[in-house]
Amino acid sequence: MPVLVRPDVRFHRSFLAALQEGLALEEEMSAAYLFTGDQTTLADPQVFADYVEKLLADVREETPRPEHFVPGTALWWVDGTQFLGRIAIRHRLNDWLRNGGGHIGYWIRPSVRRRGHARAAFLAGLSHAHRLGIDPALVSCDDDNIGSRKVIESAGGVFERPFDGKLLYWVPTGTSTEQGHNGS
Question: Has the keyword Transferase been applied to this entry (predicted)?
């Protein structure tokens, strides 16, 4: 049964396979995550280990980050050793996040889409956001992403407004299911 876990190097191979699936579909997220600034790739085990440590450190307020970034929690949706997707929970909003990024972002690898993983991972992420004191959570999706819109609305998302090609919703976090989370 899939669960949310903290990022871990044990998912290296599966994580890379998921990104390759995204690249095959020309998904921008996959390219952004696969390559680091100096053209080394996450295929290098040490680069991947450093990436995982960076994700884990991002929860701390004092962790250095670009000016417009806020502390956040990264969680991976996995089944056994298989990386299925990721949830990113930003601990607070700034002007940029209020207009499109929101509190929570998620991505599911292409080969397991349309099987309920996005909804299950999102609900588990909402529970985690609630434990962080976020309620409700601002969530956005591209205005043409019908699947994501359905996930958000099925979780109780209330439409706020469109903004620059995105739809913004407020989603209650306190009523989401606790299933699917394993803080390991």
Answer: yes
Helix, strand, coil percentages for the chain (3-state, nearest 5): 40, 25, 35
pLDDT score for 138:
98
The 10s digit of each residue's pLDDT in 71-97 is: 999 999 999 999 999 999 999 999 989
| Domain count within the chain | 1
Burial 13-29 (b: 16+ CB within 10 A, else e): ebbbebbebbbeeebee
The domain of 157 spans 3-171
With H, G, I as helix, E, B as strand and everything else as coil, classify residue 90.
strand
C-alpha to C-alpha distance for 103 and 91, rounded to whole angstroms: 7
Residue 68, domain CATH: 3.40.630.30
What would the two tokens of residue 121 be? 């991972």
